[in-house]
Amino acid sequence: MKPTIALVGRPNVGKSTLFNRLTRSRDALVADQPGLTRDRHYGHGRVGSKPYLVIDTGGFEPVVDEGILFEMAKQTLQAVDEADAIVFLVDGRTGITPQDKIIANRLRRSNQPVYLVVNKAEGMRSAVATAEFHELALGEPLSISASHGDGVRELMEMVLEHFPDAEEEPKVNHPKFVIIGRPNVGKSTLVNAVLGEDRVIAFDQAGTTRDSIYIDFEREGRQYTIIDTAGVRRRGKVDEAIEKFSVIKTMQAIEDANVAVLVLDAQLDISEQDATIAGFALEAGRALVVAVNKWDNLDNHQKETIKHEIARKLGFLDFAKFHYISALERKGVADLFKSIDEAYRAAMTKLQTPKLTRILQLAVERQLPPRTGPIRPKLRYAHQGGMNPPIIVVHGNALSKIPDSYTRYLENMFRKAFQLQGTPLRVQYKSNT
Ligand code: GDP
Ligand code: GDP
Q1: Ligand 1 pocket member 147 (CB < 6 A)
Q2: The pTM is what?
Q3: CA of 10 to the centre of ligand 1 (A)
Q4: What is the pLDDT confidence band of residue 240, given thresholds at 50, 70 and 90?
């Protein structure tokens, strides 16, 4: 499981600058999807063979007037408790502030490792930049420059030292899915509908991280694993009011699954949070099925309205199948499984090089990539670079200037030819010149 690193610190110390640096390489892989609002506070990255998730808690800060005592926002505190490591940024140019001390006091009680990082230290001797911050009593401070990149790799190597390398191959060979969505859309009702009908083989506690539970079950002769994030299955015994939505748990469960089932509430508007959660699945490259729940008790006008809303706000999920279900009445659940199977198969498909190259050549014959200046990119052949999501690596010359629209055109060609319904798809380029 990938570790999650939380970036913490008062405003203006450089959290978002560092966040961008830590997520840049990976983000470049996701071609801009029209309509996808990228949440710039959660992202993926990798240093060497070590992948990680990173959260910029600056996005959670309440807007406070000057002079009001700084309080860490609730979401920030939650992130501090749930992250695997904390990078606490301070500003080497302004020096220690009262806010830094308040945050340090809170972080000293943290169970996770905390790395005190002095930013904006370009051109300064490390000992000078860090000297006064020893007072925060969080160990030896490290100096970096987020905007220049100095010391960032060393920092991440240290943070990630005790976390595992990326897994080579997916360990299971059946759908391992997670049900995601904002609170109250019907996730636990759906989990219970799913498990109530089927024979649960084992409550597998082994390999369980935090409080997510992995449950193996069989349905119509096929194997599945459902990742049940805490509070879903056990809900009902706990007070509903204390149930809280956990970004980190959701992201990590998505990472660990090979299929995500996004639940929406048909009786409410599609919210920003729905789009954000959908965005997690898309960025993680997971196969996706959408369950529009609470389809009972809707009149035709309401049904039309919500379908229109979905098309408008979640258009970037056009690769996924949508199901209109009632978890409460257990309607539509069987069809949902057909799409889970299909999405899983698509995500794990082996794409043969000769066929990939044939489709590529066909695509180029139909529509040449646009010229930039005197040079026209030349697309020569393609091979598969990965699964879940399928990655297609296109080789050729002068490929760096290919516009996103052409990349999407190629994606659509490959998707149709290989019937990759239900999974995101990534096209990458490898230029010889
Ligand atoms: P945040 O509020 O903590 O997310 O901080 P930002 O990333 O928005 O940075 C605040 C300001 O500090 C911006 O003007 C950045 O350009 C600047 N900044 C960030 N990192 C560095 C750095 O390493 N060196 C210098 N000199 N400025 C930086
Ligand atoms: P969660 O927070 O996403 O796990 O949501 P729950 O499963 O706890 O459901 C929230 C509320 O929605 C509960 O009162 C459920 O009874 C109700 N609910 C769940 N599924 C349906 C459905 O298909 N139709 C209707 N009408 N209500 C539902």
Answers
A1: yes
A2: 0.80
A3: 11
A4: very low
Q: Whose CA is nearest to atom 24 of ligand 2?
A: 294
In this structure, which amino acid lies at residue 72?
A: M
φ, ψ of residue 234 to 5 degrees: the values are: -80, -10
Atom of ligand 1 nearest to the CA of 13: 3
Of all ligands present, the nearest one to the C-alpha of 13 is 1
Question: What is the SS3 assignment for 343?
Answer: helix
Sequence-separated contacts (24+) of 184-188 with Cβ below 8 Å: 184/265, 185/263, 185/264, 185/265, 185/293, 185/294, 186/263, 186/265, 186/293, 186/294, 186/327, 186/328, 187/232, 187/263, 188/231, 188/232, 188/233, 188/235, 188/236
CA distance 13 to 256: 32
Geometric angle at alpha carbon 413, from 409 and 419, rounded to 5°: 135
CA distance 169 to 181: 27
Q: Residue ranges for the binding site for GTP?
A: 9-16, 56-60, 119-122, 181-188, 228-232, 293-296
Q: In the structure encoding, which two tokens stand for residue 250, read together?
A: 């959701």
CA of 18 to the centre of ligand 1 (A): 8
Residue with tokens 């002095």: 118
Max CA separation in the chain (angstroms): 69
* Ligand 1 center to 153 CA (angstroms): 18
Which parts of 124-207 fold into alpha helices (H)? 126-130, 152-160, 187-197
Amino acid identity at 410: L
Kindly tell me if the per-residue pLDDT of 25 is higher than 60: no
Cβ 9 under 6 angstroms from ligand 1: yes
Going by CA atoms, what residue is nearest to atom 10 of ligand 2?
Answer: 184
Rama region for 120: left / alpha / beta (φ>0; ψ in -120 to 50; rest): left
* Tokens, residue 323: 């199901």
- Angle among Cα 95, 100, 101 to the nearest 5 degrees reads 110
Residue 155 CB partners (closer than 8 Å, separation 6+): 87, 115, 117, 142, 144
How much distance in Å is there from the Cα of 398 to the middle of ligand 2?
52
Q: For residue 371, give Cα distances in angstroms to 54, 398, 400, 413.
A: 37, 10, 12, 20
pLDDT confidence band for 310 (50 / 70 / 90): very high
Confidence at residue 208, expressed as pLDDT on a 0 to 100 scale: 37
Check whether 165 has a pLDDT greater than 50: yes
